[in-house]
């Protein structure tokens, strides 16, 4: 029925995914236009070897059922593979957080659930990867307009990470024409930002299509008048065509006056008992079991079966092994709306009372949510029961990591509280405890503004004099929430919290740790170190090993930044070992982040990169790739950029952005990406990256150390575009940032870039005299700044030597170019040529196109060649550093996926590298490539590592 083009599009999308391309198809259209029919027909065309993972979103209680489609498909997988088979395909062979969705898989991990939602998402992503590797797979989720917020977040996560799941096609169906206030309208706009999402809009049928549908329904050719009439009244909607035809009686078609009448008309033709059963079923949004329907209707087995048969024959209801559901959601809505308010309320009460008596009558694992929905619908007459049901459903939602739904339910509890005398007895908790739980749920759901408002309401009702500990804990929460929102006052709140919380309170160490972390981020080093020392003392007093680990890492980090790195590395290693003994991934990642950061700040890039890779490995094992992973990816990328491994840095950034991180980290990674693009000559790409980062940072209150790298990128872009006035404005903006002189590591690069503007040099020279230069990297920047402000060959040579000692080829090449320019102007021709050629060699190795162009211009002015005399043309099979690394792993017999996991890049990127290697070596296969590499001596000396053998750790890094 005129869906051949759309069907072919779905089939083509499926074929593309089998070739390794990510594709998600959003099948959109009005209710009844045939979305389910299309995807069902598409599924039927697939080979028997394909796997369909199907689920549907359900409209219940105004907020949907948390993770309903994924619970359903997990249950189907258990039916297909068995519990053991599903567990074998999950990370580590254990249920992990998926046990929260389907308890039969096993209990979820006990303890802190702070990162549980991130782990759940990663575990489901990993499961999809394994399933798609086994056989071609389609993830089909219908009716995403009904999706609860948690389900929407999971869908966006899976679609955003689809590049990591070769051979998986994602198909989503969505109803258009929703009210503007409907939350689900966000889904298509959010999906549209992802490049591989395609929209398949189903239009109504033409007259020919309606005629074809009538032919199928009637079993013979319809007469012209009937086709014309049905087409005009249905407007080409297949559901309405069916409804019109179901209204026919012996005298011909009955013609309803409205669409509502049209959809309700088939019900009016049923026997009275069947009508009552259908009306009762309409109040239950989910698939309803036979026993529950019997209980609600009061019919015995024979009576219920007799009443159901006409409804099923009329295509109003569909029966399956799990019970009954409406064939079309729109019909259910119309039938339910047709009920009198008293009828609807009576049915809700019957459902609720039936499920209370026997929770097994509800959908598996959904008794609490269904009770909350039914009692909530009659809360006006039964507020106490609605209150209790919402509270218990909120607890269940929290255990399932559905924090947005938990917040919705707790908000309902708070709304009902004033209407229920003795509400505390119904929920077993006081009003403040409910507000407290709602604040936690809001923060976990990402609604930080709501969380802050709830915490402030608690603070307003807390007497700090009578309850200093409670007031301090509230201030600690408010301080952390203010920081998350980028609002001022966070440090002040945390400082006040440490003053209020008594030394005898077990919360004291955590408050001190939170304050030291924020002080060192600002940074306010001296106060931060003192607070970290106090945190260690308090943690030891309470035996709080976690707090001691965090504070020890912060103190070592601060002291290392002050120039005491070698003495602090063993302390960081000890802290990491303690975190491992605790099996505390978050604490371990905090230590590794601190260690990589100080190593990088000292210019020990290989060691910093190794620690960052360890952090990424911990993130992958813990299911924290999206939440914690981007920080460690940024550390790895920064070290790789500095060391001149731009290809590795670009791949690391691309991989991290492929797991869409939170916006602040997303922006920082994009700044690093823009830095590489600018150095390689892609000014348009760099401008796009800078603009995106500025837009993201404008929505928050980022730290100065986040804004300074963006400032440098923007300044360098304006200088490259020959816009000195705009560059000068950006320098002034950067220097006006708060606490800017307390961040010398990030300020020195801005000073170096700004020094290229002669008009700013007096001010910058004065400022530079007050900015410390701690460690070799900052000292190299200071030398570069001095040479830029007062060009002298000797100063440029010292800067070039400093960068060479650090192994930073790009600033080394720039310093060599500066020295060559001064030497050329002074007539020292030989000195200029030597430095030009060294700079050209570095620029060529990096692929720094604009820098090489500057070198060539100076060489032309000096009438020399930047190449060494007799220098051979580049070797045809010369490989990049990243390709050498891939080749080494390839020679060890690793698969593309194993190489991708080792190097933290995508399998698709590995495939590209392998193709380049085969081409450069002029071989046809992997074995030949390995043999040729050994023969030509292309692999690092010392042999290849055995699979699984760890990288050598730098001194002071955790074991």
From TrEMBL:
Residues 872-937 form the HTH luxR-type domain. Residues 949-959 have a biased composition (Polar residues). Residues 938-959 are annotated as: Disordered. CDD domains: LuxR_C_like. The keyword ATP-binding applies. GO terms for cellular component: cytoplasm. Keywords: ATP-binding, Nucleotide-binding. It comes from the Bacteria. GO terms for molecular function: adenylate cyclase activity; ATP binding; DNA binding. The keyword Lipoprotein does not apply. Pfam families: AAA_16, GerE. InterPro entries: AAA_16, P-loop_NTPase, Sig_transdc_resp-reg_C-effctor, TPR-like_helical_dom_sf, Tscrpt_reg_LuxR_C, WH-like_DNA-bd_sf. PROSITE patterns: HTH_LUXR_1 (PS00622), HTH_LUXR_2 (PS50043). GO terms for biological process: regulation of DNA-templated transcription. PANTHER family: TESTICULAR SOLUBLE ADENYLYL CYCLASE, TRANSCRIPTIONAL ACTIVATOR DOMAIN. This is HTH luxR-type domain-containing protein. It comes from Amycolatopsis orientalis (Nocardia orientalis).
């Amino acid at each position: 029925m005129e869906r051949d083009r759309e069907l072919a599009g779905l089939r083509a999308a499926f074929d593309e995914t089998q070739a390794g391309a990510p594709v998600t198809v959003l099948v959109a259209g009005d209710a009844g236009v045939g979305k389910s029919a299309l995807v069902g027909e598409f599924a039927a065309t697939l080979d028997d070897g394909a796997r369909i993972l199907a689920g549907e979103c359900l409209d219940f209680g105004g907020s949907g059922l948390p993770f309903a489609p994924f619970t359903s498909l997990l249950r189907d997988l258990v039916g297909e593979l068995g519990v053991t088979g599903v567990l074998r395909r999950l990370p580590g062979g254990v249920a992990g957080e998926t046990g929260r969705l389907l308890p039969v898989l096993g209990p979820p991990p006990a303890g802190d659930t702070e990162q549980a939602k991130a782990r759940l998402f990663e575990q489901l992503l990993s499961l999809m990867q394994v399933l798609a590797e086994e056989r071609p797979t389609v993830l089909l989720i219908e009716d995403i307009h009904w999706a609860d917020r948690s389900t929407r977040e999971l869908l966006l996560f899976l679609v955003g990470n689809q590049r990591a799941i070769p051979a998986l096609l994602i198909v989503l169906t969505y109803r258009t024409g929703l009210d503007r206030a409907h939350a689900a309208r966000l889904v298509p706009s959010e999906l549209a930002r992802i490049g591989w999402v395609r929209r398949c809009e189903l239009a109504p049928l033409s007259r020919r299509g309606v005629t074809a549908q009538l032919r199928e329904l009637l079993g013979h050719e319809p007469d012209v008048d009937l086709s014309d009439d049905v087409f005009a009244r249905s407007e080409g909607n297949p559901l309405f065509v069916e409804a019109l035809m179901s209204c026919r009686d012996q005298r011909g078609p009955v013609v309803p006056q409205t669409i509502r009448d049209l959809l309700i008309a088939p019900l009016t033709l049923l026997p009275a008992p069947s009508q009552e059963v259908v009306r009762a079923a309409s109040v239950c949004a989910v698939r309803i079991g036979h026993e529950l329907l019997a209980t609600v209707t009061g019919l015995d087995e024979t009576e219920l079966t007799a009443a159901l048969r006409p409804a099923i024959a009329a295509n109003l209801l569909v029966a399956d092994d799990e019970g009954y559901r409406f064939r079309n959601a729109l019909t259910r809505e119309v039938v339910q709306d047709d009920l009198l308010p008293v009828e609807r309320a009576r049915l809700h009460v019957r459902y609720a009372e039936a499920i209370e008596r026997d929770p097994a009558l509800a959908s598996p694992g959904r008794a609490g949510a269904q009770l909350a929905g039914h009692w909530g619908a009659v809360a006006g007459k039964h507020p106490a029961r609605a209150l209790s049901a919402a509270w218990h459903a909120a607890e269940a939602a929290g255990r399932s990591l559905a924090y947005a739904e938990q917040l919705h339910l707790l908000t309902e509890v708070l709304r009902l509280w004033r209407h229920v005398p003795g509400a505390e007895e119904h929920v077993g908790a006081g009003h403040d405890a409910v507000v407290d739980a709602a604040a936690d749920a809001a923060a976990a759901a990402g609604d930080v503004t709501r969380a802050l408002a709830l915490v402030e309401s608690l603070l307003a009702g807390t007497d700090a004099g009578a309850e200093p500990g409670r007031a301090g804990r509230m201030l600690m929460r408010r301080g952390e929430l203010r920081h998350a929102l980028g609002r001022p006052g966070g440090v002040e709140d945390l400082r006040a919290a440490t003053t209020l919380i008594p030394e005898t309170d077990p919360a004291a160490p955590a408050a001190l740790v939170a304050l030291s972390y924020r002080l060192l981020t600002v940074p306010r080093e001296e106060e931060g170190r003192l607070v970290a020392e106090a945190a260690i003392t308090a943690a030891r007093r309470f035996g709080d090993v976690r707090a001691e680990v965090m504070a020890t890492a912060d103190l070592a980090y601060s002291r290392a930044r002050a120039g005491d790195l070698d003495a602090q590395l063993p302390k960081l290693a000890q802290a990491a070992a303690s975190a491992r003994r605790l099996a505390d991934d978050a604490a371990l990642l905090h230590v590794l982040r601190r260690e990589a950061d100080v190593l990088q700040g000292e210019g020990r890039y290989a060691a910093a990169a190794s620690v960052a890779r360890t952090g990424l490995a911990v993130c992958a094992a813990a299911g924290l790739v999206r939440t914690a992973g981007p920080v460690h990816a940024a550390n790895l990328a920064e070290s790789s950029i500095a060391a001149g491994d731009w290809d590795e840095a670009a791949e690391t950034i691309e991989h991290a952005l492929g797991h869409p991180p939170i916006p602040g980290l997303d922006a920082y990674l994009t700044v690093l990406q823009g830095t590489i693009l600018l150095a390689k000559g892609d000014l348009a790409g760099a401008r796009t990256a800078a603009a995106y980062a500025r837009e993201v940072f404008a929505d928050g209150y980022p730290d100065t150390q986040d804004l300074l790298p963006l400032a440098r990128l923007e300044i360098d872009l304006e200088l490259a575009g020959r816009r000195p006035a705009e560059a000068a404005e950006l320098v002034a903006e950067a220097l006006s940032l708060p606490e800017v002189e307390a961040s010398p590591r990030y300020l020195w690069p801005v000073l170096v870039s700004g020094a290229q503007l002669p008009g700013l040099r007096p001010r910058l020279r004065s400022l530079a005299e007050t900015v410390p230069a701690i460690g070799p990297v900052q000292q190299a920047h200071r030398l570069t700044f001095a040479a830029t402000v007062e060009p002298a060959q000797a100063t440029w040579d010292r800067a070039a030597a400093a960068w060479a000692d650090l192994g930073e080829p790009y600033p080394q090449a720039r310093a060599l170019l500066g020295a060559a320019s001064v030497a050329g102007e002074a007539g020292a021709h030989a000195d200029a040529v030597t430095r030009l050629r060294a700079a050209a060699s570095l620029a060529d190795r990096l692929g720094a196109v604009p820098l090489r162009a500057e070198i060539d211009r100076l060489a032309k002015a000096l009438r020399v060649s930047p190449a060494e005399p007799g220098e051979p043309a580049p070797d045809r099979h010369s490989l990049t550093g990243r390709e050498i690394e891939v080749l080494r792993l390839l020679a060890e017999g690793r698969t593309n996926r194993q190489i991708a996991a080792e190097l933290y890049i995508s399998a698709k990127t590995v495939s590209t590298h392998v193709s380049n290697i085969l081409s450069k070596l002029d071989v046809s296969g992997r074995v030949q490539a390995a043999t040729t590499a050994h023969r030509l001596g292309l692999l690092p000396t010392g042999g290849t590592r055995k699979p699984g053998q760890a990288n050598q750790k730098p001194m002071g890094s955790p074991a």
